[in-house]
Specification:
Structural class: alpha/beta
Catalytic activity: L-homoserine + acetyl-CoA = O-acetyl-L-homoserine + CoA
Family: Belongs to the MetA family.
Number of strands: 12
Number of helices: 10
CATH architecture: 3-Layer(aba) Sandwich
Shape: globular
Largest sheet: 12 strands, mixed
EC number: 2.3.1.31
Subcellular location: Cytoplasm
Order of helices and strands: EHEHEHEHEHEHEHEEHEEEHH
Main location: cytoplasm
Helix content: 25-40%
């Protein structure tokens, strides 16, 4: 089944070229079906790239999914045109009266700031609090996961000695958990961040379950309230070249940055990296939509 997106969204052309089944408003309105309504709070600077990454994964299930994009009003996006934001994004004040089957809160390049220093922190706190009563399940990614752990559970982040960037091996701790259904005992996933959270704090917190982690990259998949809140500290949604693009960007800025680990063939940035995490990315998003959204959400929100 398709994902429903605005007819003129630029990501449409990318998704259609990959044979991902999409549907615009005009066609969807002729179908008598209760689709899942998924809201995406996109905090990433290059919003159109993130849109395509997430829509690619949300569009690979038998479920029909309506997508809406949310932006913060307390931060002015610098890398996305205002025309794009006006055309495809909404604000919290416009949707706070609604109920959603699922919410995705993306990462953001603000991790070296304290949470309170982020200009949209108060707005984000309102959205996270609202999600507890107005959303069936919320998926938090990277900095979004750290923000959720801090706001909901009082677990802070700490700065790493150097950026965690690369492809790392992870182990599954609870193979019977529905979110990890079909996962291999060990699998690969990308990380790209300067901060981390302590695995001991997560394991000792009575409301949290550590489902998967990496010896090198730390806690990865964390669940709370039977999957109503899910935190992913890395970037399974990343494309094959995303880490390469970030590495080149950081080099151009003159940052003291190392080559992403276990990523380029022979550790050579001149060679094209292979995507070795795509299947688990699709599996995680499919499991989330099926077991924690579709099978948990009411047919009619009261």
């Amino acid at each position: 089944m398709p994902i429903k997106i605005p007819k003129l969204l630029p990501a449409r052309e990318i998704l259609e070229s990959e044979n991902i089944f999409i549907m615009d408003d005009e066609r969807a309105n002729h179908q008598d079906i209760r689709p899942l309504n998924i809201l995406i709070l996109n905090l990433m600077p290059e919003k159109q790239k993130t849109e395509a990454q997430l829509l690619r994964l949300l569009g690979n299930t038998p479920l029909q999914v309506n997508i809406s994009f949310l932006q913060t009003i307390t931060h002015q996006a610098k890398n996305t045109s205002q025309l794009h934001l006006d055309q495809f994004y909404t604000s919290f004040s416009e949707i706070k009266h609604r109920k959603y089957d699922g919410l995705i809160i993306t990462g953001a390049p603000v991790e070296l700031l304290s949470f309170e220093e982020v200009d949209y922190w108060e707005e984000l706190k309102m959205i996270m609090d609202w999600s507890k009563t107005n959303v069936t399940s919320t998926l938090h990614i990277c900095w979004g996961a750290q923000a959720a752990l801090y706001h909901h559970f009082g677990i802070g982040k700490y700065e790493l000695s150097r950026k965690c960037s690369g492809i790392f091996t992870h182990r599954v701790h609870d193979p019977v958990d529905l979110l990890l259904r079909g996962f291999d005992d060990e699998y690969l996933a990308p990380h790209s961040r300067y901060t981390d959270v302590a695995v001991e704090e997560i394991m000792n917190h009575p409301s949290l379950r550590l489902l998967s982690s990496s010896e090198v990259a730390g806690p990865f998949i964390i669940s709370a309230d039977e999957g109503k809140q899910i935190m992913i500290t890395g970037h399974l949604e990343y494309e094959s070249t995303t880490l390469s693009e970030e590495y080149s960007r950081d080099q151009k800025k003159g940052l003291d940055i190392h080559v992403p680990e276990n990523y380029f063939p022979n550790n050579d940035p001149n060679q094209n990296p292979a995507n070795r995490w795509r299947s688990h990315a699709h599996l995680l998003f499919s499991n989330w939509l099926n077991y924690f959204v579709y099978q948990q959400t009411p047919y009619v929100w009261e």
